[in-house]
Specification:
Elements: H1 12-38, E1 70-71, E2 77-83, E3 92-99, E4 105-106, E5 125-135, E6 149-152, E7 159-161, E8 182-191, E9 196-201, E10 212-215
Parallel strand pairs: 1-10
Antiparallel strand pairs: 2-3, 3-5, 4-5, 5-8, 6-9, 7-8, 9-10
């Protein structure tokens, strides 16, 4: 009689039958585990954001990075710029080179001044996105909002807030940004529950629905 914890080696026909039974049980367990993994909450959701490699990352015929292109964080993009004029002010058009996009840094909600315009409409945790912009056009863009937006892991576009007075994230309105000028700029993006998947540029008509994205996944 075998005691607990002792493995008795089967012999003869009994050994064969036991081996078959063991193999059958192993196959059944493997199938069960596979089914469990399929329903595992840790598996990526079908609607989760995924980089779209179908859009070429090289510039188009106009010299600009194509709408919808997905870039590595270290890559630069040359993009058109449009700032709709307010009231009787004319629209501003130009072109930018966006580079050196940094990994967003999580901030504190209490750091957002409550007296700033629209600050009470922004929900979630702020993240600071720092990048470099160069004015590659012929228009003086001094004092104009230059910003990036963001996409979370569910594919949703996040709210973006620009401020020149936020100490951890200054410079959304570069004061001296004429042709050829370069500025370090910071945007604040707000994330509700999900992690950031990408940051992007959407400040031109063709890019509003298909921003150039820098993949953070």
């Amino acid at each position: 009689m075998a005691g607990r914890g002792v493995v008795v080696a089967p012999s003869g026909q009994n050994a064969c039958m036991r081996s078959i039974n063991t193999l059958t049980l192993a196959v059944a367990c493997a199938a069960l585990l596979t089914g469990c993994n399929a329903d595992d909450d840790s598996a990526p959701a079908d609607d989760a954001w995924k980089p779209d490699s179908s859009v070429p990352t090289e510039p188009g015929d106009d010299g600009f990075t194509r709408p919808g292109a997905v870039l590595a964080p270290a890559a630069s993009a040359r993009v058109p710029f449009l700032d709709d004029g307010f009231g009787d002010e004319p629209d501003l058009t130009g072109s930018l080179e966006i580079s050196d996009v940094q990994v967003p840094v999580e901030g504190e909600r209490d750091a957002i001044p409550s007296d700033q315009a629209f600050s009470d409409e922004l929900d979630g945790t702020p993240y600071y996105v720092t990048f470099t912009a160069k004015n590659t056009g012929e228009t003086d863009l001094s004092g104009t909002v230059i910003r990036l937006t963001a996409v979370d892991v569910e594919g949703d576009t996040m709210a973006t807030w620009a401020s020149s007075s936020l100490e951890p994230c200054p410079g959304a309105f570069p004061a001296d940004f004429g042709p050829g000028a370069t500025a370090t700029i910071c945007s604040v993006v707000f994330v509700d529950d999900d992690d950031l998947a990408a940051v992007g540029y959407d400040r031109a008509p063709d890019y509003e629905d298909d921003p150039v994205l820098w993949d953070l996944t």
